[in-house]
Amino acid sequence: MSTQDNLEKILRSMHVLIAKGEPAGQSRDRVIVSKQELLGLLKDLNICVYNIMDEYEMTQQSHDEAERKSRRKGEKIVKDAGKMAEDVYAASVMYTNEALNHIQRIIQNASDSMDEVFAQMKNELEERKDTVRENQLELEGQLHDLADTKKYLQIIEERNKELEKERQKKKSWTKTEKKKSPYPEPEIKINKEYFIQNGIPLEEEGEEVSDTKEETEAALGQAVSELMKDQEKESELPKEAPEIKVNLDAEYFKWKQQQSDEKGEN
Hints:
Elements: H1 3-19, E1 22-23, E2 31-32, H2 35-179, H3 192-197, H4 202-236, H5 250-265
Antiparallel strand pairs: 1-2
Helix pairs in contact: 1-2, 2-5
């Protein structure tokens, strides 16, 4: 039987004992009961009260212990939750950091790829620009050469005509010079004493001297004629000023210089 049931039984027995007690005289508030029986009930009541107090203390201790256990358990739960939260936070920070690093690497790789593509495109554009520039300079050179060729052909044609005229004049002058020379014939004198002293017959020597005289006159006439023709040619030929060609296109000259340097290296 539990302490609570025992307490209720003792209280009920005391109530029955008092209710069955005989009235004391004429008083309605007093009754006569058995002393031993009442002391026994009080003793049982005292024991029951002590038991209840012990149970209460045990209950309180159990409650306190349970509360302490609950508190410790709660603290442990909070601590574990905090540790877990820290782990989750650290993991989230690490994951976020790694994700941001990965994003930065992606951006850097994309930037490097774009720079590489732009550099390649720039190099290709520079090469094409150089090719176009070289073609342009070559075209300008061809245009200049074409213009110069036409000009030089015209000059050469005119010069050929002048030379042809000079040759015609030269031929006519040579024919006239052969007919009549403006210079007097040289006089050849023979030292007769030299032939007599050396025992050479004068008649034979006269024939040889006459032949030598004719040859000498012919040679002198030809030399004088050639000298006069050279002087006349120099006097009649116009003194041409040297042709100076200035190309104002600096890039054309630069390109020409590069082409000549490359040919010289090859």
